[in-house]
């Protein structure tokens, strides 16, 4: 292809993302686009094709971003090359959103015609506006009887401040408005303009590890071109490789001769060392390098930490390898080795939020066959000691002795809850119960309010979101950002099983709630730890002072007798069942402790209320 042809091709490229609040229909809309552009044959069409991980399909949420190349035959008779980059909508994953937006010139903004603009719609669209992307508004789900497209159109104008007079009225479900949206993408989103003759400059916006090909980089070429055999350099890690293959996802990988400025595709170069590739890094030519790397991504910092331990201690190295591979396409995941007296060798891992934590744990179990014990999540505390020194504590068991502490500071977030008028009461009640400090309340229109509170992050990460949803019949939406550390009157509570302290069960609570919580937790532990042939006392203590206790009674008769059955098949089955049941248990001293026990600290309010 000569330069003139390349220039012509570049004019026909459109790079865009779809941004929306969770469940407003991004994935369904992406599926319709794939159909309309004949990218996938009907036979291959599987609902929500872009959500490639099983986990995503099961949970119905988009987590990893995916880029596909599509060809659209527009009404003007020309064929356009679309690169569609999917983005997640959940509050935990906004870092992924900013990654995909950096590879685009435009964004399709999807708003549910019945729900209207929600907290995450705003957060995500502002990321796009900050990046100077052209916005194509789409009002989706107009097939719903409760749809109010005109109200929502006005909302987009008032709340986001963009022109929505041309907003596409669509139904991804029944396939309405899809062509109009594709036409608007062609006309409203600008073609990329990167210099085709300049030295190669490409942004790594995602990467995955493939056993055969090594690291597969997802790149947006900003300037120049790249082809098989080129020597490339990763600028931040300062390593060089020879390109083995370039191509696009269509959505299956499709080999190409080259990628040029404006293209979004993949690149492999037999990169075996995962540490070398960093999302946000710039790829350039080793022989003719560009002077300055692209601006990387905003770094994301984990907010929640938990311990990950293999149930089988021999699997420690497998767990490390699995974490390294996951980290490759999950820039926000952090981990470091940790030892626990109770659990042995494992890792302390940092996550963006609870969903992120769940997803990582599930991926470790499914994709890497790990059997894990995870400890209750904790935030990071800044502890000022009496000698003036500061210590950062992300593991409750490492909290220094109370006598050595001057002050404990915990992270606070500014939480914005968008809710219909009628539910303001329950929302405020919930925020107060979670130690929230009221900031302000803004009426958005006649029926909706933004309620703003400063709340300790530790209260948000547990069950706040579930509670918010259930107390507002699902109408509230939440967005939050970390603001600062503030002093709180916090104490560490230790749990003793059979009189010995189990470090992995320690937790931090506000002094006013400590006793109540301790009581709840010992009862929960009693319910989840199986009886053994001796009595097991469970105690909760602050320092040397016991603040709650209960006992797990011993077995009365030998239930193992039950498996002495004559039928060998049946016996094998029973033993097998027993083995499986045992899997997610860890022997702590003389007591077998199941996974549930380590999460007991998370279940809070139901038990309080029951009392
Ligand atoms: N009635 C109706 N339902 C729709 C429409 N589009 C999507 N849905 C439904 O809305 C739900 C959410 O759709 P998704 O496409 O999974 O939403 P999403 O925004 O991709 O969600 P995340 O990927 O989790 O952020 C699904 O049950 C869809 O079937 C539509 O036009 N009309």
Protein described:
One of its GO terms (biological process) is positive regulation of translation. Belongs to the GTP-binding elongation factor family. LepA subfamily. Belongs to the TRAFAC class translation factor GTPase superfamily. Classic translation factor GTPase family. LepA subfamily. One of its GO terms (cellular component) is plasma membrane. This is Elongation factor 4. Keywords: Cell membrane, Elongation factor, GTP-binding, Hydrolase, Membrane, Nucleotide-binding, Protein biosynthesis. The protein has 611 residues and is α+β, with helices and mostly antiparallel strands. It has 15 helices and 33 strands. The protein has an eight-stranded antiparallel β-sheet with strand order 11-10-16-7-8-15-12-13, covered by helices on one side. Strands 2-3-1-4-5-6 form a six-stranded mixed β-sheet, sandwiched between helices. The N and C termini lie far apart (75 Å). It binds guanosine-5'-triphosphate (GTP). Residues 20, 22-28, 60-62, 88-89, 140-141, 143-144, 171-173 line the site of guanosine-5'-triphosphate.
